[in-house]
Structures are given as C-alpha cells and as structure tokens.
Amino acid sequence: YQVATGGISPGDIASPLRAVFSKQKNVTVLQAEATGLDVTRRRLRLRDGEISYDQLIVATGVRHHYFGHEEWAGAAPGLKTIEDALTMRRRIFLAFEAAERETDPARRRALMNFVVVGAGPTGVELAGALGELAHATLQGDFRHIDPHEVQIFLVEGQERILSSYPEQLSAQAAQSLAQLGVTVRTNTFVTGVNEGVCQLQYDGATEQLPAATILWAAGVKASPLGQVLAEQTGCELDSAGRVKVRDDLSLPGHPEIFVIGDLAHCPGPDGQPLPGVAQVAMQQGKYVAEHLRGKKKGAFRYQDRGSLAVIGRNRAVANIFGYKLSGFLAWLVWVFIHIAYLIEFDNRLIVMIQWASDYFTRKRGARLITGDSPFPLIQTDHEVTDAT
Predict the structure, then answer these.
(1) How far apart are CA 346 and CA 349, in angstroms?
(2) What angle do CA 174, 180, 136 make, to 5 degrees?
(3) Are 248 and 300 in contact (CB under 8 A)?
(4) Strand order through the sheet with 254-259
(5) Does this model's pTM top 0.85?
(6) Which domain holds residue 194?
(7) pLDDT digits (tens, 9 = 90+) for 273-327
C-alpha cells in the first residue's frame, strides 16, 4: 500500500532475486511459468519446457477473491503484487487529476469518492494512507478541487474492522480512521461493482454509492497450482483452494513435495488453519530448508510474534506477545520491523530516509503516474465524432 499511495517506489522495497542469490552458487534463478506437474517422473512442467526435481517446494501464494464475481476485477483492483500496487497508484492519482478538470458537480463528486472493500490489515492501512494523502499530502497541489472534500469509505461485512485483533485495538483503529476522514461501514456487503458505482447492502437496504475508485481488499483464494497438485497427487483442498499438508508441510503420500505460505492449509494449535501472513510463510520457509538439510526433525511449530497495522502518521495498533499497543509507540514498532525485514541494506537505507522525509514534510515523493488512464481526461474531436 505504500507504493499504491505514492509513499515509496517499487525499487525501494523489492530486490532482484539474482542479486539476492548471487553468492549462493548452488542456486540457479530461472524466469518461467509453471503450468503442471508429473509426480511419477518428478518433472515440473513449464510453459516452454520441463525441470526435473528431487524435492519440490511450492510457494505460489494466493490471488484476489471476488467471490464468484470475477467481472468486478477490472473496476476494483486488488493489492497483492508490485504490479497491483502500480495499477492502484495510477487509478488513485488519476482520479484527482480527472476531478481537477471535471466541471459537472455530480461527476466530480464521484471522482472524489474512494471505496476500500475489506477492513482487514490491508484495507485499514490503505484507507488510512488515502486519508493522509487527501488531508495532508495533496493540500495546495490543485486549483479547482479541495482534497479535503474527498470521501473515503471503508466497507466491511463483519461487525468490526480488524476482526482478528482484540476488540480494544479494533476500536482504536476505527477512531484513528475517523480522525483521518474515513467513513467506516461495518455489517455492509458489496453486491455490485461497476465503473463509477459501488452497490452496497446494509440491513436489507440497497445503496448505490457513486465512486470512480473502488479498491479491493476483501479476500484471497489459492493460486491455480493448488488445483494442479490436487489432481496429480490426490491431496485435499479446503474451501479456499489451499492445499492441506502434513505437520511437516509435505503432501500426504508425497514426502518429496512441500507446500508453504498462503497456499498451504496448515492447522495451528487450535486446529484452525494458520493465517496468510508474512511471518507464517517466513517461518515455514526456514523450517523446510532446515528439514531438507537434516537439521530439523518433527512437526512444524508456528511461533506467533504478534500483529501490526498502521493507520497513518503516529497512528498504529499492535498486538505483540499479548501486549496491546496503539498510537505513536505501535507506529514506531511498525516502522522498525518493516525496515528490518527488507532484504537489502540499500533498501533499508533508502526507505528509512524516504520515510523520515515524509514524516517531517508530509509529502509523498513517489507520486508518478504511469500507464493508461482509466478515466477520459482528454477527449479528442475524433473520439467525439465516433461516439455520435
């Protein structure tokens, strides 16, 4: 979401895999697309060839879940990859540009309405960043619109935002969002998404909310490779398409195949599947690596180190080892943890400098607009003639 709202550039947080593994001479990086699997011959099928394996680790993650309405994807982009973040950044900033040129009040109002669907950590952080963008970063940048007039709606189907967090932290997060001008709509469901309109349902009533920018953070489903594994190995999938693994993260009947990260359905101590968060994937990756090297025996045990969600400048909530934090202290913990987990030293240094600058100036330095516009900013005479 930092890239999506112009806080940092993609290169500030991502590192080329070839550079990361340059000193590991036993690691070969290949750019290819996996399309299938032959478990009998132990061959991974690619779009343009095959690769043999002794052990296979599958960590292909998840994709956006529109709950049977894939047609919504074009009008409501999600946020999982750098490409998603750039698409979202383009839509956000072009909405302001289109509003600056728009003379029709109703159309301008729609361009200045933003809807974030889903109030988990991603949705909350995205809504908070939009609030700061409108109420601080963009002030004084436009001549015909006032970014203060932007309306941001955070829509959640459950009773409260951040439902996996303690109620106290959910309430504090909601209060911080309200201070940033975000309208939180809980117990509200999205029943339709079109270009320029988000259809909501609350307590049996339907509402048509004009909004040119609808951003999706409401759910994920497993990558298609999970279905391939099920067909080839007979492994079970859960309702979200995740692969049910053994306690050592391997597939039943196939100890040579491991599934980790968001694609894996791995029960925790309470019997429920572990959440799809980065710390789970990181611990699983380390476990499998040590297991293959003979340094790890027994079942995988997840150590929950807590959860963090940042809402804005000096605003965050954290539940770390049972300690509930909010406000500046939680925000400071979030900053240091996220910088520490960047892979390259250069990335840590650049992001630290960029965030320090943003903190004091409230200006986001990566507000570049690239790619095609989803809005008709400029209509040529040729286009008008064709339309008539």
Answers:
(1) 5
(2) 155
(3) yes
(4) 56-58, 254-259, 250-251
(5) yes
(6) 70-218
(7) 999 889 999 999 999 999 999 887 789 999 988 899 999 999 999 999 889 999 9
Yes or no: say if 162 and 317 are a contact pair by the CB < 8 Å rule: yes
CA trace torsion 230, 245, 224, 76 (10° rounding): 140
Rounded to the nearest 5°, which phi and psi values hold at 212?
A: -75, -20
Active site residues: 125
Neighbours of 223 (CB within 10 A): 20
- Looking up tokens 């809402």 gives 311
The answer to the question of residue 99 being in a domain is: yes
| Calpha distance 293→235 (Å, rounded) | 25
Distances in whole angstroms, Cα of residue 352 to Cα of each of 269, 330, 348, 359: 37, 17, 6, 10
**Phi, psi at 116, each rounded to 5°:** -110, 120
d(CA 304, CA 287) in angstroms, rounded, equals 15
**How many domains would you assign to the chain?**
1
Tell me the two tokens of residue 383: 């286009």
For position 113, which CATH number holds? 3.50.50.100
Please report whether residue 42 resides in a domain. Answer: no
If you average pLDDT over residues 258-277, what whole number do you get? 92
Domain contains 97 = yes
Residue 7 domain flag: no
Do 37 and 231 touch, CB atoms closer than 8 A?
Answer: no
